């Protein structure tokens, strides 16, 4: 090879390394972004406007108490004794670990008043547990994120509908559900910026929700836990440094020839 060809080959390999490195960082950025499946966020004026909402849910129904309505971008369910509310859609939740409900109640403790059942296709499955027992959490009068571990509760991963079945003889009550989603990341906010993933655009001015949820470092089987993310970040940094060193060598070689 001539010296000129060598330089060209070196420049090409440096360029390829840089491209691979950029793709890797871009991949990390995509992984770090929220991959939650939004089943319904109720961010609309009317409950029935599911097409406009562009969410996973495609139908709602039921006879739960007096009404099911939209109130402050949340689903408001008023119940008095026996009744049900259902919502479903053609979702694929098979890749998710948790069902997440951002929920509050008028009095607190409403999770004992209803079972959370579900459907796979047309087949309704009963969990046999109240929402409180299913989630292990108590509904409070302020919004909180409550997680239902799908595998631990033996919930079929083909889940495509949720059924809130209010108990016969339950006291009258009201709950608000701000959003329902499927997630692998228990406790992490969807819009949490990751320090090691540079973004070209300016950070969003999202206001934090006033639900007091805390961020935990629970392992995330889909995107890797936080230590894996640190490892990937270190690898990206190292390959970036390698690329810079190669560029420096190429320039030195250029000067010396
Ligand atoms: Ca909402």
TrEMBL record:
Composition skew (Basic and acidic residues), residue ranges: 188-209
TM spans (from-to): 229-248
Organism ancestry: Bacteria, Bacillati, Bacillota, Bacilli, Bacillales
Signal peptide: 1-32
The name this protein goes by in its record: Sortase B protein-sorting domain-containing protein
Residue spans of biased composition, Polar residues class: 213-225
Gene3D superfamilies found in the cross-reference section: Galactose-binding lectin (2.60.120.430)
Keyword Transmembrane: yes
Annotated region (Disordered), positions in chain: 187-225
Keywords, sorted A to Z: Membrane, Signal, Transmembrane, Transmembrane helix
């Amino acid at each position: 090879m001539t010296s000129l060809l060598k330089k060209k080959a070196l420049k090409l390999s440096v360029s390829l390394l840089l491209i691979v490195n950029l793709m890797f960082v871009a991949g990390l950025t995509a992984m770090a972004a929220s991959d939650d499946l939004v089943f319904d966020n109720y961010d609309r004026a009317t409950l029935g406007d599911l097409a406009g909402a562009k969410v996973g849910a495609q139908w709602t129904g039921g006879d739960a108490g007096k009404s099911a309505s939209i109130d402050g971008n949340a689903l408001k369910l008023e119940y008095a004794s026996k009744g049900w509310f259902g919502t479903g859609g053609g979702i694929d939740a098979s890749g998710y670990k948790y069902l997440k409900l951002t929920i509050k109640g008028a009095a607190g403790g409403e999770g004992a008043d209803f079972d959370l059942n579900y459907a796979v296709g047309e087949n309704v499955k009963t969990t046999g547990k109240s929402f409180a027992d299913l989630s292990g959490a108590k509904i409070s009068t302020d919004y909180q994120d409550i997680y239902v571990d799908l595998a631990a509760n033996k919930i079929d991963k083909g889940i495509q509908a949720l059924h809130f079945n209010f108990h016969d003889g339950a006291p009258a009550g009201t709950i608000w559900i701000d959003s329902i989603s499927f997630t692998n990341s228990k406790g992490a906010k969807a819009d949490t910026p990751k320090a090691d993933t540079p973004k070209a655009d300016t950070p969003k001015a999202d206001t934090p929700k006033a639900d007091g949820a805390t961020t935990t470092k629970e392992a995330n089987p889909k995107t890797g836990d936080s230590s894996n993310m640190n490892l990937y970040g270190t690898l990206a940094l190292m390959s970036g440094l390698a690329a810079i060193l190669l560029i420096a060598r190429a320039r030195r070689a250029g000067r010396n020839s």
